[in-house]
């Protein structure tokens, strides 16, 4: 990972605009292709919503268009009868929120230390982190389960759910990459003035790091939101299970009992997808291209 | 850089030796040996099947009313492919409940190997209670050391359900339909797909999960051989002429596209995509009034009298787990939930057959009120279980992979695939 | 911890510095993370390594069970297991489809988003959304779309493949590769977008003065300019491919027909957790990790020629 040679020229760059060619054939074709691609990308979500509203499953081509005669909210009530959608959504939120908090506090400190502070053993920690990134979670799963349940006694608890995911290695990596590019003199002046390292971090580093933080948080969000194996192992109590787990179980066992199995699965899926989308749409403005440049480099 | 790695290596070695010490004495030793007469509160798990949950909750409430010092707490675990993993992991962590009311007999050898199960023979009336309730069939549930590590609880004898409306539409008789021999079955299947307005004659799940053979190959194999298990006395039985006949029958169905090789999301019989289903009486609650159904025993090559046909039990047992401290309460509760009354409630609420001898005589009122279940009660006396052998899950997975490749997808000849599988399985079940 | 402006620290600080490095406060900052790694992952990792040399399975606490040392036999069994070999081939197939597609699409998309085209917010949402949604949720739709009577086959009509997509041992893995590409694209677009912003505008302007067209500019400036990110994307995509679990598990439960969509991690899960052969599963994990790290190192070597 080499840092960009253009560190001094970290101002936002865009491909030069060509005012007179704004409507050139190339541009129009390009935009059209992008729009077509975007539509194709969004199609599964559209289909998900359509499918969740169908009374009887219609897998033909006409089924792709909402048929007023076939619309119903029954699928949502069906799956809600088996899976308490509100409660499981809340559990997903607690699980994900816990991970986000831990990653923010612990991960940010770690990323900063790995990048800007020199101490013996720094590279050992970095390599350990990279190792965790590479290895699949399934390798650790049972010993981790034994550790958390037997030694730490955290079965059937939110903490037990959160712990293995608490600090997302990719987020730490992103923080480190970002802080690597900031020149040391930026902080030295504050240090010389007598500021403690913590203050330096709080007052200087973090405000600068905002785009990296947003990026890292979005990356971190997906892990626990998506995770259906680990919470399933760690807790049997229904009122602690996140929605991803409940939905996975629903798909494999109970769906067949519903009036429209596919419809109710998709209804659950819609409920799982919507909050993530909303959160993302709100924060996507943070991805303003000018800020993003400094977020992840190298 | 190299020095860093050397240092890391040194630390790691030290830690490994430390871990080895810990693992060496099996995770730090267990607690004091549990007393078979200890009483107190216990926890139990039951499946999340809606009707079973109702039954379970009723049992717990009734017991708790009369036993204030021995309260029972019930929790649901998802049934299906992941429940064995959950239980296995739980055994390792030492947090299994006292009783799990949906222990699959195929998983018992594995749990036993892990040291997770309590032998019910440790209770003075353990073996006798089980044998009195279940009769001869109880022997199929003994482990290789002759003890009972599970209590046989309920069975869902697998039969062929058929959709009377679809049969009528296809011009087939709706009482005593021609489904007794393979030849008849095939011909009927063809007619159904051609004229019955269904996509498939029958639609067993073609996925590769280890337990799928229990709902396509195994019931027919049991019927055809008059009651043999997949492996008997350490010797695989399925690669003989009977096993090959069953496999060839299914293969013809797949080849003639009367049975799809892709899974259906949902219940194909309930959605009227398939004219028949191969399943047990628990499904009646699902079909309910949606489908006009009939049930017949599974077919055999040349036909057999219904009273002679055996089938797969699809049985679920109750396991008592070694993490339990109040074994006395657990055993009493176990006997309570398998008493004549409780079994009767199970029957009424779920339609599943308790593993009791002579069901129709024990619950005459129920069967008078629900004559459609009588066939299943009768079939329940002739059920065969999965073999209780070491590595049983791996055995079924190996079989399924061979079956899938040769019968469902016709990639290899059946006799070759079965022979190879038989050789592998022979080694597996010998305990290596 | 301050250093005098003249750079001449006192004797005590000198000693500390040589022992611990310039900023010992780093230990305090890194401590929570090290605690996390050590307290949660060190033990499982070492256990996994340890048990891979034994005929190991997990047992109840206090149970007396026999777990003989078997040396390297788990490893030889893994390497000669045809299912494992098939799963590695599947991963290779996945990587061959997914990685080039990912690099190409994410770079093009990032360039487009960078170019101040209209509807940018819409594009951002459209192309990133799959990344932030749970696999469990979208699997349902994909299963439905690609099922035998699904929409895709409906549109294709007579061209629909038989056996259908997810049960075909030829098509199952490519479908998974496409689904995962769709899903992960957003993340790589972010990476490329950042890199693109660091390409100095002057380079483009100079090229334009020389009469270079869009494609020429792209090939000669953009692509070399983001080469380090390309290395990162290739490595990350390879790691994701090697660790593929959710999609094979949910889409083709059990590894598909003849193990056509079996992945090594799914095999590890089946062997270790479903069938209780923990030692064997650990050996699979170690072999996989070694292969992945080797490939990453090779990737890095090949791509980072500077």
What is the number of E strands of chain B? Answer: 14
| Amino-to-carboxy terminus distance of chain B | 44 Å
Described by strand count, sense and barrel closure, the largest sheet of chain A is: none
Q: Can you identify the CATH superfamily of the largest domain in chain A? A: MetI-like
Largest interface: A-C, 113 and 113 residues
In CATH, the homologous superfamily of the largest domain in chain B goes by the name: Periplasmic binding protein-like II
Percent helix among the residues of chain B? Answer: 40-55%
Number of strands of chain A: 0
Average predicted confidence as pLDDT of chain B: 87
- What Rg of chain B, in angstroms, do the CA atoms define? 24 Å
Assembly state (oligomeric): heterotrimer
Provide the β-strand percentage band of chain B: 5-15%
CATH topology of the largest domain in chain B: D-Maltodextrin-Binding Protein, domain 2
Would you identify the regions of chain A where 5 or more consecutive residues have pLDDT less than 50?
1-19, 289-298
- Count of helical regions of chain B: 17
* CA-atom Rg of chain A in angstroms: 24 Å
Give the overall silhouette of chain A: globular
Helical content class of chain A: 55-70%
Average pLDDT metric of chain A = 78
């Amino acid at each position: 990972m080499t840092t960009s040679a253009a560190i001094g020229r970290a101002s936002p760059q865009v491909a030069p605009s060509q005012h007179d060619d704004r409507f050139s054939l190339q541009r129009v074709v390009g935009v059209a292709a992008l729009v077509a691609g975007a539509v194709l990308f969004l199609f599964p979500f559209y289909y998900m919503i359509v499918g969740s509203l169908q009374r009887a499953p219609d897998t033909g081509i006409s089924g792709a268009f909402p048929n007023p005669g076939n619309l119903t909210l029954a699928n949502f009530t069906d799956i809600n009868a088996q899976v308490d959608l509100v409660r499981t959504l809340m559990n997903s939120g607690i699980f994900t929120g816990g991970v986000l908090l831990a990653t923010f506090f612990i991960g940010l400190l770690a990323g900063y230390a790995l990048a800007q502070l020199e101490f013996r053993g720094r590279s050992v920690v970095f390599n350990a982190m990279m190792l965790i990134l590479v290895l699949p979670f399934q390798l650790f799963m049972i010993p981790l389960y034994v550790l958390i349940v037997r030694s730490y006694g955290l079965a059937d608890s939110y903490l037990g759910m959160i712990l293995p995911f608490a600090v997302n290695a990719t987020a730490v990596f992103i923080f480190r990459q970002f802080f690597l590019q900031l020149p040391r003199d930026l902080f030295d002046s504050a240090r010389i003035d007598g500021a403690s390292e913590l203050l330096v971090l709080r007052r200087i580093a973090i405000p600068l790091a905002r785009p990296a933080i947003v990026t890292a948080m979005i990356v971190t969000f997906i892990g626990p939101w998506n995770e259906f194996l680990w919470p399933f192992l760690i807790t049997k109590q229904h009122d602690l299970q996140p929605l991803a787990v409940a939905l996975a179980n629903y798909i494999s066992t109970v769906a067949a009992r519903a009036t429209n199995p596919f419809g109710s699965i998709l209804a659950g899926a819609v409920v799982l997808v919507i909050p993530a989308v909303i959160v993302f749409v709100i924060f996507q403005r943070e991805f303003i291209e000018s800020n993003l440049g400094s977020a992840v480099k190298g | 850089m190299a020095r860093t790695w050397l240092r890391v290596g040194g630390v790691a070695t030290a830690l490994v030796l430390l871990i080895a010490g810990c693992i060496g004495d099996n995770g730090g030793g267990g607690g004091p040996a549990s007393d078979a007469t200890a009483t107190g509160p216990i926890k139990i798990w039951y499946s999340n099947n809606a009707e079973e949950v109702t039954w379970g909750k009723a049992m717990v409430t009734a017991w708790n009313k009369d036993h204030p010092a021995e309260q029972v707490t019930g929790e649901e675990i998802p049934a299906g492919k992941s429940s064995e993993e959950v239980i296995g992991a739980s055994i390792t962590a030492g947090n299994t409940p006292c009783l799990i009311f949906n222990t699959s007999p195929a998983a018992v050898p594995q749990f036993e190997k892990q040291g997770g199960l309590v032998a019910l023979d440790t209770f003075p009336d353990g073996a006798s209670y089980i044998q009195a309730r279940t009769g001869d069939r109880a022997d199929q549930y003994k482990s290789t050391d002759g003890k009972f590590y599970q209590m046989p609880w309920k069975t869902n004898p697998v039969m062929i359900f058929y959709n009377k409306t679809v049969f009528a539409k296809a011009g087939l008789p709706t009482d005593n339909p021609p489904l007794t021999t393979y030849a008849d079955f095939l011909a009927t299947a063809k007619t159904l797909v051609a004229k019955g307005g269904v996509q498939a004659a029958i639609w067993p799940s073609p996925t590769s999960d280890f337990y799928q053979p229990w709902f396509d190959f195994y019931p027919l194999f049991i019927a055809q051989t008059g009651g043999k298990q997949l492996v008997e006395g350490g010797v695989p039985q399925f690669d003989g002429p009977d096993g090959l006949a069953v496999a060839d029958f299914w293969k013809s169905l797949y080849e003639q596209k009367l049975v799809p090789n892709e899974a259906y999301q949902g219940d194909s019989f309930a959605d009227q995509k398939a004219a028949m289903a191969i399943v047990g009486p628990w499904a009646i609650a699902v079909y309910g009034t949606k489908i006009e159904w009939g049930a017949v025993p599974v077919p055999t090559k040349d036909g057999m009298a219904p009273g002679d046909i055996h089938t797969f039990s699809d049985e679920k047992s109750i396991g008592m787990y070694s993490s339990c401290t109040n074994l006395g309460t657990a055993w009493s509760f176990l006997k309570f939930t398998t008493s004549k009354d409780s079994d009767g409630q199970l029957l009424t609420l779920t339609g599943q057959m308790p593993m009791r001898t002579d069901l129709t005589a024990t619950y005459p009122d129920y069967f008078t009120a629900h004559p459609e279940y009588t066939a299943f009660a009768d079939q329940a006396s002739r059920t065969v279980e999965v073999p209780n052998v070491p590595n049983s899950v791996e055995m079924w997975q190996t079989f399924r992979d061979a079956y899938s490749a040769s019968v469902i997808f016709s990639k290899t000849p059946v006799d070759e695939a079965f022979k190879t599988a038989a050789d592998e399985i022979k080694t597996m079940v010998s305990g290596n | 911890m301050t250093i005098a402006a003249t750079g001449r620290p006192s004797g005590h600080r000198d000693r500390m510095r040589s022992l611990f490095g310039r900023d010992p406060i780093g230990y305090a900052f890194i401590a929570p993370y090290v605690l996390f790694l050590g307290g949660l992952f060190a033990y499982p990792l070492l256990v996994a390594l340890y048990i891979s040399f034994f005929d190991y399975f997990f047992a109840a606490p206090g149970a007396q069970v026999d777990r003989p040392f078997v040396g390297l036999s788990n490893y030889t069994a893994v390497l000669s297991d045809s299912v494992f070999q098939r799963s590695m081939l599947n991963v290779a197939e996945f990587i061959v489809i997914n990685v080039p597609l990912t690099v190409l699409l994410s770079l093009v998309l990032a360039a487009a988003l960078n170019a101040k085209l209209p509807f940018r917010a819409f594009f951002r949402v459209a192309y990133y959304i799959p990344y932030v949604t749970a696999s469990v949720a979208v699997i349902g739709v994909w299963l439905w779309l690609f099922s035998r009577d699904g929409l895709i086959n409906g549109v294709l009509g007579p061209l629909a493949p038989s056996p259908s997509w997810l049960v075909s041992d030829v098509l199952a893995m490519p479908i998974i590769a496409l689904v995962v590409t769709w899903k992960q694209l957003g993340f790589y677009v972010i990476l490329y977008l950042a890199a693109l912003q660091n390409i100095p505008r002057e380079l483009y302007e100079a090229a334009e003065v020389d009469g270079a067209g869009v494609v020429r500019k792209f090939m000669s400036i953009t692509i070399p300019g983001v080469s380090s990110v390309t290395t990162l994307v290739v490595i990350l995509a390879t790691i994701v491919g090697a660790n593929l679990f959710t999609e094979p598990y949910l889409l083709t439960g059990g590894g598909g027909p003849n193990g056509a969509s079996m992945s090594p991690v799914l095999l590890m899960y089946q062997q270790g957790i479903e069938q209780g052969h923990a030692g064997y599963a650990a050996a699979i994990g170690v072999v996989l990790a070694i292969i992945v790290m080797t490939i990453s190192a090779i990737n890095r070597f090949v791509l980072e020629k500077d």
